[in-house]
Amino acid sequence: MLNNRVDVDSFRAGAICLALAGIVGLFIILGHDARVDEPTDPDVRIHHAIAKVRVDWPGVTRGLRFLTRFGDWPVAAPVTLITLFTILILSQRVGGRVTGPAVFVGLIAILAAQGLSVTLKRAVGRERPPIENRLVVENAPSFPSGHSVFAGSFLTTLVLLGRRLNASSRLFPRHCLVGLCGLFAFTLGFSRVWLGVHYPSDVVGGLILGVFTTLGVWLTFLGIDHSTGKPLIDAPGTSL
After folding, report:
1. Quick one: which of 35, 104, 125, 209 is 20 to 30 A from 44 by CA?
2. Averaged pLDDT score across all residues of the chain
3. Would you say residue 230 has pLDDT above 90?
4. Band (3; pLDDT cuts 50, 70, 90)
5. Mean per-residue pLDDT for 18-28?
């Protein structure tokens, strides 16, 4: 029985290392600065195509201008705190399995993702799309999209906590939660492309960074839980 457990843990560790290697490779490809200097690059072509199309869709532009504010830290910070602590209180009332430490880990994951985003922006130093096509003011480097990093990390945290909030074993509510969070993250990221302040690869890279940084933080704390035998965030009946 112990050998089977060790084999499973070894397989998981190997799979995680392989996934991380693939993500790093994809990140290098997406963040390569010379790509966006080529007029035939897909990033550049999509950017100019959207800049032409959005003239005929002013309603979409207004809606995405509003939506993109959820990724601005003056809005994102209070929304994050209110949402996570609301989930904690709701869980206590409905008999869910969301713990205070789990909420704290969620906050750490979101902050860690943002810290990596700022560091990578400075390291890559990619210029934003042409200023004449931007509909909002941004001055920081372009890759990765900080709004997309936040969307990926915040909504991944919501999914992880939501699985603990729902005491039912039914999968349908969980699938709905994952679907809604994924749709919102995609739309928030797309708003940055539509408004002309990011290339598509900035958004894809940001979402990848946000999601996998959050999962990495959760896996780290789950490992600490298991090694110490004190299930602070891995409450009975829950999983990643």
Report:
1. 209
2. 81
3. no
4. very low
5. 63
Contacts 24+ apart (CB under 8 A), 193-196: 193/46, 193/47, 193/50, 194/50, 194/54, 194/60, 194/61, 194/64, 195/61, 195/64, 195/65, 195/68, 195/134, 195/135, 195/136, 196/47, 196/50, 196/51, 196/129, 196/133, 196/134, 196/135
**Closest residue by Cα to residue 118 from 100, 143, 94:** 143
Residue 2 pLDDT more than 50?
no
Query: Which tokens in the block code for residue 94?
Result: 């409905």
- Tens of pLDDT along 83-115? 998 888 888 887 777 888 889 999 999 999 999
The whole-model pTM stands at: 0.82
Q: Which of 182, 151, 177, 183 is nearest to 162 (CA)?
A: 177
